[in-house]
Amino acid sequence: MHPRDQSIFALSSGRPPSAISIVRLSGPQAGATLAGLAGRVPQPRLATRVLLRDPLGQPIDDAVVLWFPAPASATGEDVAEFHVHGGRAVLAALFAALASFDNVRAAEPGEFTRRAFENGKLDLTEAEALDDLIHADTDRQRRQALGQLKGMFGDKVRDWRARIIEVSALIEVGIDFSDEGDVPEELITPAVARIKSLLDEIKEVLAAQGRSERLREGLVVAISGPPNVGKSTLINLLARREVAIVSPHAGTTRDVIEVQLDLDGYPVTLIDTAGIRQTDDPVEREGVRRARMRAAEADLVLWLIDDEHGQSERARHELASDASVWVIRNKIDLRGEGRAADSAFDPPAKRGASAFGISASRGDGIAELVAALAAFARDYFGSGEAALIGRERQRKLLQETTNSLQRSLSAVGQGEELVAEELRSASDFLGRLLGRIDVEDVLDAIFREFCIGK
Fold first, then answer.
1. Along the chain (454 residues), what's the average pLDDT of each consecutive run of 10 residues?
2. In sequence order, which residues have a C-beta less than 8 Å from that of residue 186 and are 6 or more positions away?
C-alpha cells in the first residue's frame, strides 16, 4: 500500500508528562481503528468518554475520543482524536495499540498538514503560515502568520491568477479565431490594459514588503567592540538574566553568545562577541574572527567603548559590515556624568552617525537604549501586520511573475503567440506559489520543517 493510503498517528499536543495529551489519527483506517480501541465509533464531532482497550482487550486509559469523518476534517480524511491522560506509559501503550492495526503507522514531520494541503483544505501559502504560527515567538510574528493562515495572501494570488487566465483566454481567442467574423479584430488593446493594471498591482505589493519577510527570523543585533568594555554585562542587562560570563580579565568571551529577545513584539537575536583586538592566543584569535564574521552578518552593530578605548574607531571601521553601527559609550558613571546629560539619543541615519552614553553596571541609559532598539526594529520591519509576503520563496515567485508579465508587454507587436506564452508562464509561477503546479521538491522541503503531529 502506498504510504499516502495508510493511516497515520502522532502526538499533537505538548511533550509528556502533562494533564491531557491529544493523539491524532488520520486516514482510511481511522474509523476501524477507533472502533477497535473504543468499542464503537461515536457521533461525529461529539466528545465521548470511553475506556480504551488494546487489541488483546487490556485497558489503556479512561479517555475522551472525537470522530471527524471525511471530508469535514482538518486533513480532509477520516480523523479520530484520543484525549488521554498525559503520562508517558499511557502514551506508549496507546501508540503500541495503534501501530498494531494493519496499515496504521506513526506520522512523519508535517504529514498531517501535507495531507490537508493535498486534499485542498489549504494552499501552500496557508501551510507555510501554519508553520510560522506554530513557531511564532512574538506577538507581531503571530499576527502576521495568522493573517496569512486566514488566506490574506492566498486569496490575492488566486485573484491574480484568475485575471491572468482571463487575459490569456482573450489573447488566445484572437490567435485561434482570427479569421472568424464574429471575433473583434482588436483584442490585444484591452488585454494590454489588463496586463498593465495587474503588473502595477503586483509591483505595488512587492514594493510595500520591505523587510517584512525578515519578521520570521528576527532582527540580528551584535554587541561588539574592544575587550573588557562591558559587552557581556550589557547583554545580561538586555536579556534580564545571566547569559554571559562577566570578568575583569580581557578575553573572557571566546565564542559567540546568542540570546533571543521579544522587543515590543519584534523578535531580536542579540549577540555577544569576543573583544576585537590583536592577539597571539590562537583560541582568542578564532573568537575574534567569529566576532568579525557575526558582526558582518548583523542588521545592527552596537560598538561598545569606554574612555580607555575611546580611540578604537579604527577597529570599528574595519568591520566588514553594511549594517548600521551605533557607538555606545559605556561606564559614564566612572566619570561622574549624569544620566540626562549623556543619554540623549538620536537614532543614526547612517553608519556610525551617533553615540549613546550608558552605564552597564549601574543601568544608566539602558531604558533609553531599549526604546531606541525597539524604534529601530519598528522601522526595520515596517508595517509587518499588513504584509502579504512572508517568505523568500513567495517573493521570488512573485518577482518571476512580474518579469513574465513585463515580457508579455514587450512581446506585443512581435506576435500574439509570444504574449500568450509569457502569460502562461506568469500563471504557472502563481500556481507554484500556491503549490498547485510542479512543486513536489518544494513540498518535501517545506513540510519536513514541521513538527511531528502537525
1. 85 91 96 96 96 95 97 95 96 96 93 91 86 79 79 88 87 61 60 91 79 70 80 81 50 61 83 58 57 72 72 48 79 60 40 68 85 85 64 89 94 82 92 75 62 70
2. none
